[in-house]
Amino acid sequence: MPEIPLTRVVSVTSADPRHPAENLLRPDGGGRWRGAAAGEKQLSVVLELGGSRPIHSLHIGNDGAAFVEVLVGSSAGGDFQVLLPSAALMSPSESRAGAEPRRVRLFGPDSLVKGPAQGTWDRLRVVLSQPYCQSRPFGLSFIRLFAAPEDDEVPPEAPVRRLGPFTVREEGGSPRRPP
């Protein structure tokens, strides 16, 4: 699936100078976006997409937010439409304790609203909220968007994954030697 690049930050409600929203444009850069201060209940950022293609899936890296909602829109105007309804990133108890603040959630085509997911958009609004903990700033580590594969595209061969000295194989593969 081809990744849809993010080209610029159109607007942001709040950003820490050390963790600006522009860090979301470089998902592999290791930076993150956080609100300017603890105690904010909701943050939002509007991002411009590098191409107008239907959105097939989303990968979202959390940084302390309890909920995320993703909307899509057009630079030509009109209202934003809900692509991903509000989804939990942390439970209330995890939010209060600060446990697992950097969890990654993958949202496939079944999680997205069908109508907006099939349209073409060039703007993305991400709305984060954290109603359970007012003592820590929150935000996102990254967000990545993927377009549906073209009909003539062949899916890439699954890469060999290594976990330390071990090779992880896909489900259903046969072992190289008997146990």
Automatic annotation (TrEMBL):
Residues 1-145 form the DNA-repair protein Xrcc1 N-terminal domain. GO terms for cellular component: nucleus. Gene3D superfamilies: Galactose-binding domain-like (2.60.120.260). One of its GO terms (molecular function) is damaged DNA binding. One of its GO terms (biological process) is single strand break repair. SUPFAM superfamilies: Galactose-binding domain-like (SSF49785). Pfam families: XRCC1_N. Residues 168-179 have a biased composition (Basic and acidic residues). Residues 152-179 are annotated as: Disordered. This is XRCC1 protein. It comes from Atrichornis clamosus.
